[in-house]
Design a protein that fits this description.
homodimer; 318 residues; alpha/beta; Nucleotidyltransferase, domain 5; 2 domains; five-stranded mixed sheet; 11 helices; 13 strands; 42% helix; globular
């Protein structure tokens, strides 16, 4: 009987899940709104329903489902499978997600932080195949991070490592929701790009209406057509991202840096600024050898990585 | 026959060496000027003479010397024992130090970067006993770093990891010798403190003579007696060091941060500023659990750590 797992990406917006083979092929997939506002009980019920659909599907295909992997945002205690705290799920405090799901489903469940899961997804089936040391950055509303060293996630002493988005880049910079000032994510996330744009527009007071309604997608589009404030906003984003990546290269001397999140289409707009900063700030040899590449799996990275977690925790993947 | 090793700290200024037991006790020690300007052949000859003194001493004591460990500044290829490049030894380029020493001495020799060696020394016999994840910072002319994860040095893909002193802290800050601007070491090294002090003095143009002749020791002393510019210089040093440490806590979630180098006597002058920045910048839980402590071994850390490298490479220490 061939072996399979179910990978789940429990996002603040969408709940994605899939049935995957040992080779990482996606056999079926499901996506729906997470519905965070309805509370954790409804979200978990929805999650269980989706997993059961995959389980029935696996049965029909004659596959044995070994485990379920779940990538969830926030502070996760990976060993116990407890969601300690999650900014996207305000009512999830010390929620024993692994235990709750295992009690209902009767198969092993493993929980991992979502950015860590996405990093593992890229390593297993995406940009980082055969790479042993890799830093993964995901640019969304915030900036998430996953650190892979010697082929494994570095979780830190308490499972809280990898908060790369909260590296201070500008000591007296923009106020971040975490309490710090000048965090990388205040310059290189979608919110950061909007602030970069608003600051650029404010300098000449043009077009206040467009300025205030701008989304990161609109700014990327405007930059693509050569609008100067949008170009500046995206260049600033690349500059600060480049400072952060240069720091990571000097600290880790990794083989690869993978940038994911909703920025794939904008890659060509900011990557030159990233490379310019890395070139002038990081040590030459590690900077030249570190591949800086976009995510290959895109929105699938978290789900595929959660599957990788499941396979590795039951001993199928090393 | 009891086992021993010889640990060597090959510094830009001093050459320190010692004979150590398995328990890390120092049986005899030697210190002399390195004499870098005389060229690498003379330095290596001096090194060999000192090691031979320790070997004779071991023989007299009835000890078997298993290996020699050498901590050297710069880029070291730890596996091959080659000094790839060393800023303090301009004529050391791809020098096969391990091979040269083994050829003469006839016992195994292992080479490690000096900051990494000092980190291992603190972990073995100093502040970090029983600690598995520890970041070591050494504040001297520059700021060196050693990263211990899961009990071992993280070398990076090419042995160049741990360049913590070259983390960008101020994007458009002071020009560093590495080519970057705003590196941590331009604010928190002894050179950095002098620049902090000179900037503070420049603001009111007093006492230009004292300002220009100041050393870091003089500034610490003046700060200890309450002189306002010196106090400001040391507070700035603590502030920037705190930003760097907060970043490291958010990235690594380590058990401990150890600060070494020539700052032990000044600890009480800057540690409050460090803790203030960590408190406002790092995530609360990892920040509260991370012990930030001074080096216990001081100037012995590199030599003791080089001995730890030697013991562990011959399989005596795990």
């Amino acid at each position: 009987m061939d072996r399979a797992v179910i990978g789940v990406d429990l996002g603040g917006t969408n709940l994605r899940s899939a049935l995957l083979t040992e080779g990482g092929d996606i056999l079926d997939r499901h996506k729906q709104a997470t519905g965070v506002v309805e509370g954790h009980e409804k979200v978990i019920r929805r999650l269980i329903e989706n997993i059961r659909i995959h389980l029935r599907n696996a049965e029909r295909r004659g596959l044995k489902v070994m485990a379920v992997g779940v990538g969830a945002p926030g502070v996760i205690h990976a060993d116990s499978g407890v969601v300690v705290k999650s900014p996207n799920f305000p009512d999830w405090n010390n929620l024993p997600l692994k235990q709750e799901l295992e009690g209902v489903l009767g198969i092993p469940v493993f929980i991992e932080n979502d950015a860590n899961a996405a990093a593992l997804g890229e390593q297993w089936r995406g940009a980082g195949k055969n790479v042993q040391s890799m830093i993964f950055l995901t640019l969304g509303t915030g900036v998430g991070g996953g650190i892979i060293l010697q082929g494994r996630i570095w979780h830190g002493a308490d499972g809280m490592a990898g908060e790369i988005g909260h590296m201070t880049i500008v000591p007296d910079g923009r106020q971040c929701g975490c309490g710090n000032q000048g965090c990388l994510e205040m310059y290189a996330s979608s919110r950061g790009i909007i602030m970069n744009y608003q600051e650029a527009c404010a300098s000449d007071r043009t077009n206040a209406g467009a300025r205030d309604a701008a989304t990161s997608e609109m700014i990327y589009q405007a930059a693509g057509s050569g609008e100067k404030h949008a170009l500046h906003a995206v260049d600033e984003m690349g500059r600060f991202l480049g400072i952060g990546i240069a720091n990571l290269i000097n600290i880790f001397n990794p083989e690869m840096v993978v940038v994911g999140g909703g920025v794939k289409d904008a890659w060509s707009l900011f990557i030159d600024a990233v490379r310019r900063e890395v070139g002038r700030r990081a040590f030459a040899y590690p900077a030249e050898r570190t591949k800086i590449v976009p995510s290959v799996l895109g929105d699938d990275a978290g789900m595929v990585g959660a599957a990788a977690v499941a396979f590795s925790r039951v001993g199928v993947l090393s």
